[in-house]
Amino acid sequence: MSEELRLSAYETRGKPGLRRFGMVIDLRRCIGCDACMVACKAEYDVPVGVFRTWVPYRVVGKYPTVKKQFLPRLCNHCDDPPCVRACPVGATYKVDDGGFVLQHYDRCIGCKACMASCPYNARFMLPEHRTRSNITSVVDKCTFCYHRVVQGLVPACVQTCVGRARVFGDMNDPKSEVSQLVARHSTQTLRPEQGTKPHVFYIGADRNLTEYGRSVYDSRAEQDEERATFNRNHRI
Amino acid sequence: MLDFTVFHTIAWPGAYAWYFFVIGISVALFFFSALSWYREEFQPLRRSAFYGSFALLVIGGLLLISDLSQPLRFLNILNPAYLKFDSPLAWGSLNLVSFGLVSVAYFFMMNKGNDALAKKLAVLGALLALGLPIYTGFDLTVHQHRPVWNTPLMPVLFVALSLLSGAAVASFLASGNEKLMVMLRRFMLWSGGATAAMLISLLGTTAYGGSAAEITFMFMTSGTMGMIFVGLGMLLGLAAPIALLLAPVGRQPVVMMAAGVLLLIGGAALRYAILIGPQIVHTYY
């Protein structure tokens, strides 16, 4: 990203001396095994019903030549994150060196302004009771496995990806694999028009997966049932 | 559209709409109480409107705090070490607290008979009161990816809705006082007209917006929010009371109070639909 595109003081992409981590997800390699979801759940004891990363899909084609198109999702660790601006108490913040968007759990008041501001639905509310953690009733999200990355490891979802669809690295280092993938391939980001400068890049994302469509309005009966169950469980 | 996805909760639930409703009425009532120092017609409202305003302010504050998932941490928002002025919520919380403090001071000065100071506090309080619906709208406006919310109309729309609902409640407090009812009718008509004009332009820009805006328009007009937004909010809660007020019997106190009831239903429905409607589409992605 060139310097001319930088708008806010938060942005660290291309800033000398700073790392800017990002992820490339090559959808041609994703087989939809959900191992990334499981690895993430195991790494953080993510409660039932909420996800730091999830893999929605769409079935395309006509029987018998049908296939599933996957679109693994997670926090986009935006360079100009709207959640950081929305938080009134600084509970959501961006780490300059690395670009991680993280959360001070002890500061979060649970106003959900960050959830409302996130175009990627990456944030969720932790339940009131948890078995193995006392972090409850605050907003949580993917951290790009900050605790692993600072120790020289890659995020749990990247390490576990059997098809090597997920690649993680420093976008500010032109020699890194992620930089080279972005340079060599045509990549897509989600909701680029929002100006958040997301740092999860997709190779081979279909527009039918990434864009809003009328079908949410005319949703299928079984999806409505699933949704009703979800609403019941989440007390909407 | 995806065949399988993880559903997401609506970030801001209906409780926020009740807060918007209650605080909107509270600030308008304070405004009418303040106006009583400058316009003779409003004098009967000076105390009753203030008491109503303060009671609703307390209820609104409690609603806001109870909706936090960590209610006791509401003090964090007043902690200068934590407060972040990038967020409209930070400004809003300071505005709310200042309005509460000025309201208390106004009450004591009014009771003490210190009219000169009470008058000054009334002006200060009215300005802070004006800030609250502006902040409410601004709070929604800053979310750039939300259709309907992300328009400059929101703060102005919330000011108009506030005056509309406040005038409706004040019509019950007026006890049939003829001069006051004439003024309140004007407030209802002007703020009602302004609200209608803003809603029409909002619907127009939403219908011709991007894909998310178009789907939101569909949800808000013919979809799950249609009955609340168009039926209760625009027709029963706005068009019907305006028609009632403009009718030959529209100056009678009973008719005005009937219009007030409809305006309150409309005010609550519109706030609810404006809050929830633009959040629906994102829960599917």
Helix content of chain B: over 70%
Kindly report how far apart the N and C termini of chain A lie: 40 Å
**Largest interface, C-beta within 8 A:** A-B, 52 and 48 residues
Indicate the CATH topology of chain B: Formate dehydrogenase/DMSO reductase fold
Task: Evaluate the radius of gyration of chain A.
Answer: 18 Å
> What is the CATH architecture term of one domain in chain A?
2-Layer Sandwich
Tally of contiguous helical segments of chain B? 9
Report the order of strands and helices of chain A.
Answer: EHEEHEEHEEHHEHEEHH
Low-pLDDT ranges of chain A: none
Number of domains of chain B: 1
Quote the beta fraction of chain B: under 5%
Major β-sheet strand ordering of chain A:
8-1-10-9
Element pattern of chain B in H and E: HHHHHHHHH
- The percentage helix of chain A is 10-25%
How far apart the termini of chain B lie comes to 8 Å
Give a short account of the largest sheet of chain B. none
